Amino acid sequence: MDFFQALDLVENPYPYFEYLREQGPVVYLPKHNVMAVTGYEEGVAVLRDHDTFSSINSATGPLPPLPFEPEGDDITEQIANYRSEMSFGSMLVTQDPPEHTRSRSLLVGLLTPKRLKETETFIASSVQALIDKFIDKGKFEAVSEFAHPLATMTIADILGVPQEDHAKFLPLFGPLPGQIGGDEPLENNPMVEVGMHFFNYIQDRRENPRPDMMTQLAQARYRDGELPDIVDIVSHAAVVFGAGQDTTVRLIAALMKTLAEKPELQAQVRADRSLVPAVVEEVLRLDGPTKTHFRLAKRHARVGDQDVAPGTVIMLVQSAMRRDPRMFESPDEFRLDRNNLQTQLAFGKGIHMCIGAALARAEAKLAAEHILDRTSDLRINEDKHGAAGNRHYEYEANYTQRALCEVHLEFSKQ
Hints:
Elements: H1 14-22, E1 26-29, E2 34-37, H2 40-48, E3 53-54, H3 76-82, H4 99-104, H5 113-134, E4 139-141, H6 143-159, H7 166-169, H8 192-207, H9 213-219, H10 230-261, H11 263-271, H12 276-287, E5 293-297, E6 301-303, E7 306-308, E8 313-316, H13 318-321, H14 357-374, E9 375-380, H15 382-385, E10 408-413
Parallel strand pairs: 2-8
Antiparallel strand pairs: 1-2, 3-5, 4-10, 5-8, 6-7, 9-10
Helix pairs in contact: 5-6, 5-14, 6-10, 8-9, 8-10, 10-12, 10-14, 12-14
């Protein structure tokens, strides 16, 4: 089976991942020259070794193929020479040190605990406003009517996008990289439309500073004191905007689905709201937004007990790593009593760990708490998804993301 073309695996990829695990924590898939990693420790070792493994293909993996034929024992220079020809090659998530270190230094301190605490008031009011729109209907669709507008408005507010412009950003939620069947043609920076908006904002903030994150970005300097080009800052702002949407939307949708699918869990959390953070972590572990992401071997190396040659694609199967029985006892069970919940890797590890992880957790927590406050129960809409035991959910046809398209829910008003 070709994982990168298999639509049959979109709704439920887990049996395939277990099939890979049965062959060992690291398995070679020759069709695309991919080394698949399902083992937790083996995957973490790759994530921490940025000297050996490049992030250039992090978002897309083996598709499209490399624009060059790997030559020699070290292809670091080839990666640098061809970076501009590779999809997403200029974005922060695909950069390698020292460029990544230099770029990320501009973002350090943007989402501080103090800033996040201040943002929680906005998140809470946004959640309530969204619930107001459907509370009398007794039903809602969790992605389009709740998670998507919440995540978009929150990151727009944090970045300092004027309130009157928030509506402009709601449609800017395009297809994710890693589409099965091939991505649509993309520029090196896929968020061109977002960048056009941010270019004007950042140019204005350099001339007219305000007390917001956009100004902090606009005024940020590299550690050597150099003021970045506006285009570079726009790229980083677009990354923060995109990251502030994707993961959060998928997390909230999966969280709402989980609570509705598990009445006993829902009752337990309704009785004790202190359990909400643990529920969020276990949803991230069992049904987190990222299925796979990738690295490219720059030189000869070993991954687990397998030798890899320069140019080999390393597929880190996060959905399987988070269910590694060597790391998580009874890995397929939803349990709130785990003592290692925070190690579930949904936001990555190492220098590329998601900078918005704390924000995504805060949004999911507040979304769950306010939904529970204003409803007496939460149920799956069986007309849309089928009866218990025969459910069907549509997921985006994507080999990198676990992305629910819709979750239709019903409830009784509190």
